[in-house]
Amino acid sequence: MRPRSSQPELRFVVAGMGVQGVKRRAIIGESPCVTVDPFAKGVDFTRLDEVPVDEFDAVYLCTPDSAKHELVEYAVGHGKHVLIEKPFNLMPGHYSSLSTLAQSTGATIYVAYNHRFEPHIASVKSILDSGELGEIYTVSLSYGNGTAQLVRQSQWRDTGIGVISDLGSHLLDMVDFWWGIEGRRIDFMDAQAKENRAFDQANFRISGTPAVYAETTMLSWRNDFQCIIRGSEGSAHIASLCKWGPTSLTVRGRVRPSGRPDERSETLVQADPTWAAEHDHFLGLIAAGDAGNLATSREIARILDEVTEDLLGAT
Question: In terms of pTM, does the model score above 0.90?
Fold first, then answer.
């Protein structure tokens, strides 16, 4: 970490006032903030470079993927901290150059994967780290929503590998959070485009230890998340997320040689806490002089680039 002295209240820019930008702006609350969007009504500026560089400290970047690299480079080059909505997929050399630039200007670059801050997902991290489940045998993750039609109506979202990048990147980050992702890859079992131009349904295996079997879909007519982790000493089960509530975590302890397991369960019914928690995490990284998580983003991008080449050919 790079030491940094205490700072006054940060001044923010939210660039891109779509669904995610509106959420980020709400979380910033009463802190000084201006908004940027070339099309949305009621914003303060239409371009990031119109905002005087001495009037902001950090950028929440909620733009289409194609614009992200240039905007991050601009912000970091001026010593501004950047939170980037996932995914952040660049050419390999661009990660190194951005990292070098951030080191020279003292900027923090954080790619946002807010599911790490979901209470049950964080609890599973603690359970895994404690060794309570023993050796992990099998992992299955399923993440689905019913956004196929909405995505098809978007010129920039219904492209590339579709749901594999959109929802699959969250699952890859979850795997990194729990076990690490370096050196892993995706082995495809099935990827389909039922209603969209890009893939809207995919089942795949994430290699490594433990291997993870995953499903991502835009064809789930009720939003859903399911996780099952089975180990030599027990299992953990997550059903749903706070934003769709209720969400439950059940932990079962193995009984030998067989029998009904010991079981504890927690169900939460609450508003989605992840946006505020991630905002606080970002501020904490900045205060600590932490460079951010560009290395993790680079690994996720490498995996998704390999998938893109496998499914669509070199681009």
Answer: yes
